[in-house]
């Protein structure tokens, strides 16, 4: 063996003249390869020297054992070499993928010389795509036969069957690989496969024709169609189990709709596989065209399913074909093979694809049947509503001719359906100016909405109201016309109706029909006229009452002031002294007059507010001063009853905008009312600043109010029951006047209470009153 740094022709010639077996270049030789080459050369030289130089005569007694060992070693190597050469297969002896020796058959089938094979890496004889498989089997000690493709010296390829065996050696471990050329076997197998494929193709074609001609698909029965599909698919491909699995609504799992077992000839369903439990399988299902698995245990796509599902059922090989509905993956057709591993052919995969297409057709047929059934039911319901509706309904074409109408419309107009058919709808309606423009606008809106719906997904029903017209009863709202029109009856009378007209678009989105809903409102109109007349009369009476009360209040106040003034003079004894009895009578006259004057003032104020004659002087009012005034005014009354009177004002509640006299009047009414109906306990005034304004809350621990009586609280001249009338004096004007004054300010008075647990009245005044929004400081009543 000659080793040189570079490849040189002169060195090569010189090496040949020296009868060297190998000429190596260090730049092209790895340390491992060099070691193997040297080891192989040494072994050959050792064998030659042992054969030529060692004889029995030269061996003395001390080296007898060594001689015997050398002869045995030489004999074993010779026998091994003879066996390799006598073998019908190609034989490779290698260590760590480096060929140590090879026989003539291997050289013959690969086109190399034996000396060219020694030192080569075994992987160089195998095509690139199968080298990983070869390396895996070598290192794992796999000893069963398997097939690979071998590359000849001339770069041509041929199929071989490899079978390896580990050989123990005292010098170094080796592995022997038997290489069998199976080209003829493969050709015979392919020829047989072609014949079998021809028969299988005819059978598959017959199955597909049978399914295509089946009436089950036309009936739209999904379960029956799937049962037929799974049975014929299993019988054609000779697969033990064929199942159809579909995704659920949220696509979190696939559910078995039908699973046919060819051995038991039974159909089952109901099983499911969660996507979260088998993510790799579901990912492969969504990304790959088909999942054709030879060995489910070693295929990464099905390893998740193997332990919990497939292996339990004895399944060894699997073919899964996705089911597509348009661009959406809806499920999978699963072929489960039991027994020896099965290599799925392209022809079988194509047939399985066709079966998946039939499943898609079955699903579409079932959905169409469901849609048609729903449409039929919808049409039946519409016809029932159309015929039995108490409202007149008419279908009108774009030329305004009636194409259909219901019995209710015939009753409204006095004509039969035959008489109305084909007539112009406008002949029976009293048309007003602007109606034609509304119809045109309605039709144009439908066209615009159809374009929007097509382009950006808007719906016709999403349109906002267009608003009312100038009081003529016409309105375009949500793609329909609402109007009140008089219709001409067959007997010549005019019938008041409420008409709603909308547009029904055709399949192309263009307006096709008008839908007119006609309701007879003649009685309603007559009732409205009566109510309007009654309302006007009531309003006139109310105004007259208010004016009368206001006038009478003024008339009563003048003599009452005189009575009170003279009574006060008599109390002061300015015209002479009075005895005790006279003093008692004069005090009674004065207090009665004072009470009567307060009543007259309340009546006058209430009448002015109701008559719209009350004017507010809105100015900034100090809230603390206002509260102090109200508390001081009612403190004597509270003390007389032994009640605790408190006031709590929010620091932020500094100024409010109100009529000072009226807000004092409202607070005094609420506090006086609370003290009146609180036998024991306390009365509180709490003022808070809120985002929209300010609240004045009067709380008490009095008798409380039943919630059923709230509706009567703010009605004038009314107390809640006769017992209160007897026990507590008053006319019930205070709360009514307080609420009206609060609403005149733009606020309100509310109440929360429970019987026996006290009451809470809240006066709310807004930050800005209606008069402020209009820019004025005074506001008239409405």
State the end-to-end CA separation. 125 Å
The helix tally amounts to 22
Strand content: 15-25%
Q: Report helical residue fraction.
A: 40-55%
Q: What are the low-pLDDT stretches, counting only 5+ consecutive residues below 50?
A: 53-63, 66-71, 452-471, 721-726, 771-782
Q: From the alpha carbons, calculate the radius of gyration and give it in angstroms.
A: 55 Å
Shape: elongated
Please outline the major beta sheet: 7 strands, antiparallel
Count the beta strands: 29
Query: Overall pLDDT, averaged?
Result: 79
Structural class: alpha+beta
Describe the structure.
- With 782 residues, this protein is α+β, with helices and mostly antiparallel strands.
- It is 46% helix and 23% strand.
- The chain contains 22 helices and 29 strands.
- The strands form seven sheets. Strands 8, 9, 10, 11, 12, 13 and 14 form a seven-stranded antiparallel β-sheet that branches. Strands 16-15-20-19-18-17 form a six-stranded antiparallel β-sheet.
- Strand 6 (157-167) and strand 7 (174-181) form a beta hairpin.
- Helix 9 (222-237) runs antiparallel to helix 12 (346-388).
- It is elongated and about 170 Å long.
- The chain starts with a strand and ends with a strand.
- Mean pLDDT is 79; it is low at 53-63, 66-71, 452-471, 721-726 and 771-782.
